[in-house]
From TrEMBL:
Biased composition (Basic and acidic residues): 122-138
Top-level EC class as recorded in UniProt: transferase
The UniProt record lists the keyword Oxidoreductase: no
Keyword Ribonucleoprotein carried by entry: no
Full protein name: Methylated-DNA--protein-cysteine methyltransferase
Listed GO biological process terms: DNA repair; methylation
Organism field: Sclerotinia borealis (strain F-4128)
Every Methylated-DNA-[protein]-cysteine S-methyltransferase DNA binding domain range: 223-311
Reactions catalysed, as given in the entry: a 6-O-methyl-2'-deoxyguanosine in DNA + L-cysteinyl-[protein] = S-methyl-L-cysteinyl-[protein] + a 2'-deoxyguanosine in DNA; a 4-O-methyl-thymidine in DNA + L-cysteinyl-[protein] = a thymidine in DNA + S-methyl-L-cysteinyl-[protein]
Molecular function as annotated in GO: methylated-DNA-[protein]-cysteine S-methyltransferase activity
Keywords on record: DNA damage, DNA repair, Methyltransferase, Transferase
Origin: domain of life: Eukaryota
Length: 328
């Protein structure tokens, strides 16, 4: 007999138990026993609720209170409640670092005090589509991310983007040149200390453990960006997914996912090029891939990588075939 869908009342009770009972008890026990978390920055129930809801409801970009009316547990959707309980469980297992989540929560609240976080009016899941608002929010995200790690402006943000997508001094086709081509053979041999060729992943079975470990251990990535990049590793070569499918899997919004993918330090091995707009266009969310299907700085590379992997484009430059959505 099929399991009955979990009611919203049951999810509300599970969430209340998580932040009111289980997490405070774990923090107290961890003070004397060994160590789920390296340190517990908070011990009070409403602090656990703040940290988790800022990450899930606020998506690491805004306080949850700017997107949802109080009391939060009564106004969250089933998807949000389930995501909060799941994140709490990961904290209890030591799979998520509470200190990192708390730091991100405090940072977005400080930004709100400075007037950098627009408060939403209406429902949490209503997308703010106006281009001006979206652009201002993305600018705030980039500048704040830059300042967190010692930079003074947006140029510092380039350090968190893979060098593969940086503007090149060599002709643009060289990163995806066939290994047996004259241009490839004329290029200098890589030194032993260098990383593998940026297109080696096109020709060898992917070993994701190394990249998953790098994502998990990179201190400059927020927890939300880690979730996005980790999910991205599931998309197999020769397939593509969409911002909508990826955001649905992450209980997030396409805008937040698109913004996170602009700052992928492990491209193309962690394959942000396999995420397209709904309808098969290249997409981009005004990021490094161009805007609304227009040619951008890296459109040619994105299309070239997908073609190398076996993805087919029609005469209008859109992908042929059904988008992959097999996330687990």
């Amino acid at each position: 007999m099929a399991a009955q869908p979990e009611s919203i009342e049951a999810l509300q009770q599970s969430w209340k138990k998580m932040y009111q009972v289980l997490l405070p008890a774990a923090a107290k026990a961890d003070a004397t026993e060994n160590k789920i978390q390296h340190t517990w920055p908070v011990h009070i129930d409403h602090c656990f609720a703040r940290i988790i809801m800022d990450n899930v409801v606020g998506e690491g970009e805004a306080p949850w209170t700017s997107r949802l009316k109080s009391p939060g547990y009564k106004n969250m959707s089933k998807t949000q409640l389930r995501a909060c309980v799941e994140l709490g469980s990961k904290i209890l297992k030591g799979e998520e670092k509470l200190c990192d989540l708390n730091r991100e929560s405090l940072e977005v609240r400080e930004r709100e005090k400075r007037g950098q976080v627009p408060r939403a009016n209406g429902r949490q899941e209503r997308e703010v589509d106006e281009a001006g608002k979206r652009k201002r929010q993305e600018d705030d995200d980039e500048v704040e991310e830059d300042r967190k790690f010692g930079g003074r402006g947006r140029k510092r943000q380039q350090a968190t983007i893979s060098k593969y997508w940086a503007k090149e001094q060599t002709p643009p086709e060289s990163p995806i040149t066939r290994p047996d081509s004259p241009r490839h053979s004329a290029s200098p041999s890589p030194s032993p200390s260098r990383s593998p060729s940026p297109t080696s992943f096109l020709h060898t079975p992917p070993n994701l453990n190394n990249w998953l470990q790098k994502i998990s251990s990179t201190p400059t990535l927020t927890p939300f960006r880690k979730r996005v990049l980790t999910a991205l590793c599931q998309v197999p070569p020769g397939h593509y997914t969409t911002y909508a499918f990826l955001s649905k899997h992450l209980h997030s919004s396409p805008r937040a996912v698109g913004n996170a993918l602009r700052n992928n330090p492990y491209a193309p091995q962690v394959p942000c090029h396999r995420v397209l707009a709904t309808g098969g266009g290249l997409g981009g969310f005004e990021g490094e891939w161009g805007r609304n299907g227009e040619a951008g700085a890296n459109d040619g590379k994105k299309r070239g990588l997908l073609k190398k992997e076996g993805v087919v484009f029609d005469g209008k430059g859109k992908v042929v075939g059904v988008a992959w959505e097999g996330f687990v």
